[in-house]
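Chain A, query sequence.
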Amino acid sequence: MRTQIFNGCQERVFRLALRITRNQEDAEDSQQEALLKAYRHMDQFQGRSQFTTWISRIAINEALMNLRKRRDAFHVPLEDVVEQAEEATVRRRLSSPPESPEAAYSRKELGETLSAAIDRLRPLYRSVFVMRTVEELSTTETASKLQISNSAVKTRLRRARNELRSILRDTAAAPRAFAGARISGATPLLA
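Chain A, predicted structure.
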């Protein structure tokens, strides 16, 4: 019985860990640790929430612990980024009509820019942003999984959006600064 319950949660735990750690290996480690801890402490599950909420909280804690361990060496393997982009491209192609090459390139570039900007968010804000925006969890579900108040979720989401907006503005401003540069090699003209 326990095995069936845990088998049903493995994919969810992995996706949650991957969204927080942004690294395949760390997500796998977090998943393994979370499932092991949940299995060992199954007697502590009190049933005040859904089992998936309980195990998701354990997974989030493990993923955040993993981030703390490697705080100084934060990187995303190129293979993971390429693999995720290819999977997303295949899904989009199967579900939508053909688009022009220009539109496809613009969409791909926008997606890459947005993913890079999300990766630059602080982990505290990124976890809330991903749960609410990507996983499409409610404020209450997110608060429950992170063990924070609803107002804290709303505050962190607002701050994540503001920080994301600022990151995207900086990203958009960088090419314009180069566009204003003189051909002779002088520094860009910044008003």
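The chain has a mean pLDDT of 77. Helices lie at 2-21, 24-40, 51-69, 78-95, 101-120, 123-134, 139-146, 150-179.
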